[in-house]
Amino acid sequence: MRWADEMRIETPEQIGVDLELSGLGSRFVAQIIDWFWKILFTLLLALVCGVAASLLGKVDLPDDPSVLLISVAVSLIYILWLGAGIYCETMWNGQTPGKRFAGIRVIRQGGGPIDARSACVRNFLAVADFLPGFYLLGALLILLTSNRQRLGDLAAGTIVVRERSAGAAPDEDEHLMAHASDAFRFSPTHLKALAPGDRAIIRSFLQRYEGMDPDGRNRLVFRMADGFVQKTGYVPTIDIDDSHTARAFLASLLRDLDELRRHA
User: Fold this and answer.
1) What is the pLDDT of residues 161-206, one digit of tens each?
2) Which of 15, 54, 163, 243 would be 218's cystine partner, CB 3.0–4.6 Å?
3) Where are the domains of the chain?
4) Long-range contacts of 124-128 (CB under 8 A, 24+ apart)
5) What parts of the sequence cross the membrane (predicted)?
């Protein structure tokens, strides 16, 4: 059994990125917060249905409306408890309100963002984690599997990772941003086309740029720049025809990503 909460993924650009896996504690905190909101909305729904039942009870109807109201309420509660996780993880890049508070995120094992199919699979199987009771199966799987995956994660091919909340030192940030150029400016539309792990890939490459072999580094910086031009749909205003310009392109992309995160 491996106790280290780290895993490394290899990107298509052949850069290794270390990810910190979320443990049982942070996932439990996220689950409690998500349950709190779901229970709150369930109580509000029950209150609305109760008021509706009392109002309909005063109306002379040929059939008893209570059965229909109960059916509607149960259906809405089921949709709420199951659909909320699917919706949030798909629309919020792998986060629910609880995961956002706990600083964790669901991603695919290859490092890409979670999609709707994966979110559906992991949330449909969430009920199995409570077998035989008190979240026992889910807790055991998180503790015993190498990548801290519960049953839904194993079936969906997802992992839960911790957000890197601690940024780089100010002097390191200043060094990286010194290579950014005003010739490259990216709109939010360009930036939203990137996966959550792309920022870490760019930063990791720029941090290691000076110490890399020049020939391999130059080939890689052109490949990365071309890949992110295609991914973002960005049309450069100047030609990226040398390694210095390609590095400036990547540094500018990192700069605008960080700026978007600060404003978000």
Assistant:
1) 887 654 444 555 677 788 999 999 999 999 988 876 788 788 888 8
2) 243
3) 6-162, 170-258
4) 124/82, 124/152, 125/151, 125/152, 125/155, 125/156, 126/85, 126/150, 126/152, 128/152
5) 35-56, 68-87, 124-144
